[in-house]
TrEMBL record:
Keywords: Hydrolase, Metal-binding, Metalloprotease, Protease, Secreted, Signal, Zinc, Zymogen. Its cofactor is Zn(2+). It comes from Hymenobacter armeniacus. This is M36 family metallopeptidase. Gene3D superfamilies: 3.10.170.10, 3.50.30.30, Neutral Protease Domain 2. Residues 495-587 form the PA domain.
Amino acid sequence: MVFSFTKSHGGLLLALALAFPGVSVAQSGAPSAQALAYFTAQGERQGLHGGDATNPTVTSSYFDQSSGLTHTYLRQRVNGVDIYGAVGDVHTDRSGKPVLMHQGFVVDAARLAPSAVPTLTPEQAVSAAAKALQLPKPVGLTLVRDARAADGVLFNNGGISEYDIPVRLLYFPINGQLKLVWDVNIAQLDQQHHWTARVDAHTGQLLDKTDFVVSEEVTFQQITARALHSRPAAVTAASANRGGLGAANSMTVLPVPVEAPSFGVRASVPFPSATSANAAYSPYGWHVADPRATVAGTSIFPGSYSRLAAGVYLTRGNNVAAYDDSQNTTSGSGNILSNTNSPDGGATLDFDFPFNPATSPKLSSPAIITNLFYWNNMLHDVMASKGFDEASGNFQYKNAGTQGLGGDYVRAESQDGSGRNNANFSTPADGQPGRMQMYLWDNALRPTFTITAPAALAGSINYGTADFGRSIATLPAGICGTIVAVNDGVSGNSGLHGCATPYLNTRDVSGKIALIMRGGCAQLTGGVRTPSSFAGKVRRAQQNGAIMAIIIDSVATNTVLSNMTGTDTVGIRIPSIFLSGADGARILASLRAGTPVTGCATASPDYDGSLDNGIVSHEFGHGISNRLTGGPSNSNCVTQQYLPNGSSTAATTQCMGEGWSDFFALWMTTRVGDVGRTPRGTGTYVVGEAPTGAGIRYKTYTDDMAVNNYTYGVVGTGNYNETHALGEVWATVLWDLNWQFIYRNGFNPDFLAQTGGNNQFLKLVLQGCKLQVCNPGFLDGRDAILRADSLLNNHANSALIWTVFARRGMGKSAQQGPRVAVNGYPNGLPGLTGIVAAFDMPTGVRPVTLLNPAATPLGTQSASAINGSLVSAYPNPAQNVLTVQAQLASKSEVQVSLINLVGQAVISTTTNVTDVQRGLELNTSTLAAGLYVVRITTSEGIFTTKVQVKH
């Protein structure tokens, strides 16, 4: 197709050349003149005038193979300078006909815009932004790429940013005016924030900032307040050991859809081959050593990335590089080029590593990183199969096609040392890597020291931990021994402070647990000063042969526990714990009375977020919604607004990003046999809950209104001004809809397929993200899904979608209020305003009966409708083998039959319900071609579906 432009849009040729360097307009999926003229005309009908909609910048435009649409995303421009946040979109079908447009342009922009000549230089803007963001002053700032200020210049990192620093001149809408600003992009070296900051181009004042990094809960305490803490089910020994599962060209992981070790066991999963279903979505394979990653005899990766010449075969590929970013590898370095912080599968690519959930996850790091690598790759392929592909900005080092930018694989950082009890994902614009940071999580079960003798002291007491020496969590059975009070011969309390070595009682301490009192070493006889540090005391105990050190508080009445830190900790190999003064005094009194004391120290190991595949999916989901909404070159269209003088916790948009991410997590971990009525928690593993736990959200996800009664009316009230709480409401309605699609179209466990209600609905959700307005509200999201269904399915599910949204208060008469708060908050008031829930249907649209096969029907649906939604038979048509799956329960064995048109059972077998839930294969090679009925007879009733057999 050849694109032409009218005179009024001729300036777009330059914008397109900048947006798609080296790619012809025809190849790029660029907008037609018809689409742009339509956008301008519609904008003027909506109140724009004076050239407001003329000659906008095309930020991105691409042809969507999955839908046949061309999606074009625009930004308003005046005086040759773009207006930040003034964005629009127009979408056209295969013929070039516009089917949808939105615009959020500034009315009368030419009148409002001041001169486009700044006072500050771009260098001064970087310094002003760094100061406002409380970052160090840039050092050695030099220009890397020069250009027109309105097109953006590029500086080196100035010692303050992980990447080079882009700076661009923009207009920023504020208080009904347009201010000239410099937009400065700084990725903090600690990887906690990737800022885009707007500073006044004349004064340097920070006017606005947004963050490409989306984090989860602020503190673990907020989570534990909502979580019960029962230990997860133990992982079987077979899943914990290496040797029986490994094979060449494979990974031992928790395979999709296993959510965490508490949900199932690990299995050996092969790398996808060139003939697998994944090949269409990962054309260069998953690993740098894949033969497909070599083009014309040359690897698509630089040598420093692949390290193949050195014989190192790490968890790196075109879609993701997964590696250890713990404190031991300098947290925040993000050094993917090191060959020591990723597991090595060897030349045979056998990524089978030991995993023991009873010990510290640091000991199982290779297995955990492999799991993180696998899940990121699966998420890449599954989401690509539903429309998050190269053209729309997915994460890949090299793209196989001509649309979209490469160089942006996911940097998946396991056991990241820059935080705990959290996770985050950074989504800069297409062409820059996404980063997933996964942290360790505190185990809510306090570590204990159990006194086994004498009987008068027997029992468990809590202890404080040390950040040096060996962690007791690395010892499966803990550590046990006899306690001996030390005597250094020089300090007070009979030498109990352990200030000098050797001890007078070294022989007694050797092989035992050393009891030492805190402090007391600042000044000794003869003026010799000895450090009182915890680490120094423990080192001296180690030098005297102790197997562990117990430090007790020096105040015998003190009940407070301390966690011990140290600086001079090199060479300390034994574990140590801290006991309160009260507990220590009881032990010391027994020893001084001549009564031996024995005991054992045990610890509950941390949980690793990289093993909670729901959280991994959630984080990846931020990359999806941020790249799809507003186009891949604009990552500020699903964002929480950060205000220079305000809290970032309160939402200033309706913040649906957390909701999409929770939905993706639930979707990726849905198992055969699940039903929508069953409550699902989020993050149950990392807070130590069983799979049936509540997790880290206020309510569990279920379509049962008695358990989860969220409606649109809660948005902006109480806790529901916070981003994650708002996300719960949005994810709930998506989850409801997902199950209604499954009940009508079946569940397909092949997540790469296009059939099955689950796959069909996920595609609608992704298409909705592409079609919706920048920074949408809930009703915008609703309308986008409806429009996606109209374009992809000819309105086939319109009534169903309306029914489910209306049930949750997002009916036709619902009101959304401001999409984005003005200058922080609408009308100067905190929170979200103007939201009105309504439960009505549009005129002429009849509500459909909602299906609920797991309990009392939500309506008066027919039995046949329920039955047909529960049974899946595929492939359909079948040839030699038909697989039958069903989400059913039965108190007895089930009978599976294939019935011909005259009512004869041509195949019949009796089996247990688990086999049917997993998928039962029937041999249809000898059957005559034609229509058959699959009938499953259970203790709960008879369930059927239709299938064709062809040869």
